[in-house]
Amino acid sequence: MSNRMISVGTSAGQIEGECDPKFEGVLHAFVENFERRDELGASVCISIEGRPVVDLWGGKVTESGAPWKRDTVSIVFSATKGATALCAHMAADRGLLDFDAPVTRYWPEFGQAGKEGALTSMILDHSVGVPHLREPLKNGAFYDYDHMIGLIERERPFWEPGTRNGYHGITLAWTAGELVHRTSGKRLGEFFRDEVAKPLGIDFWIGLPEAIESRVAPMIFPPVTDDVRNSRISQAAAREKDSATHYFIFNMGGFNPNSREAHAAEIGSANGISNARGLAGVYAPLANGGELGGVRLVSRDALVRMSLCSVATHEDVTLRIPTRFSLGFMKAMDNRRLENAKHCSLLISDSAFGHVGAGGSIGFADPACRMSFGYSMNRMGFGILMNDRGQSLIDAAYRAIGYRSDAGGVWAN
What we know:
Elements: E1 4-10, E2 13-19, H1 24-36, E3 41-48, E4 51-59, E5 74-75, H2 80-93, H3 120-124, H4 145-154, H5 172-184, H6 188-200, E6 204-205, H7 226-229, H8 232-239, H9 244-250, H10 260-264, E7 273-274, H11 276-283, E8 291-292, E9 295-296, H12 300-307, E10 311-313, E11 323-325, E12 353-356, E13 362-366, E14 371-377, H13 388-400
């Protein structure tokens, strides 16, 4: 069935694009986000077997500004980690990187202060023990790649590598990024551009060219409400001054995601610039055996490793909620019944893998149903994982392909 063209007015502005009639539930959820869930500007894209079945965008770039267009992009925060992890898996698939080898095989300077025995896999599954930095960060530290590498090399781990796991919310940019650099000879942003984004023809950058800056929608931060103040992560950050959680919240070196400096830097954990089409585009080959349209990113064996859960914990050292990760990607996480953890779940199928970004952006692949999914927005929602806007789109996508329920903690057919 062919897609139909969409042009729908909402209180926040016009929605444009195309949608397969089978996926009209996604369109309805997208409209509902603007009418009832405070969406301002956003995009959603879904492909099945590599064919786009949903490609929608709409709303506004700013509250009083221009409309969100087909080529509007925004920072997708930690959804960038999926792109970074993909680069590491590509290096491993080419025999450049061994996940079972010590990090020091490729990066000798990392092996100090208690990190000598760390394995490369521990960097990707958030168990290597450097989820953040204790030293107060200088203003603009995240924009200085070499400075951050030096700090991480000298950092004493928060736990013995491999014995626990805690979300490496920022530092994964330089731990995983430097492994790609040391093994491929290319810095992460260059590797991703040359080996992924250009071959696939997608708008996705880790280190944005200045020529694209005019297309970037600025991020609008969520208000600080009682839900924010009472959340498990906020309470732990305020109470435990020498914890990874505290440093993750309060030691950010003046990072401003709406600045040109932040967009231009190479922060493979946090500053990818894309839209839903780009996010879904990265994952489309991964939903289809590792190859799409003559572009092979990884082998089928590598794809199995990417989707396999590597670590799961009842309390993530950094996020203070139960989490589940494969090597570099988030797996389904059901924390709906956890107290003081509103919007701390990601409900996808058990075969799916991807990554959420702060505020609710997401990209993921589901090889079982050969679906890739992307969602981006400019008004951030509260919560560590998915809020109602993004999750409603995911739910509608799974219902459209015949999945029955998420009551068991994952979408199941």
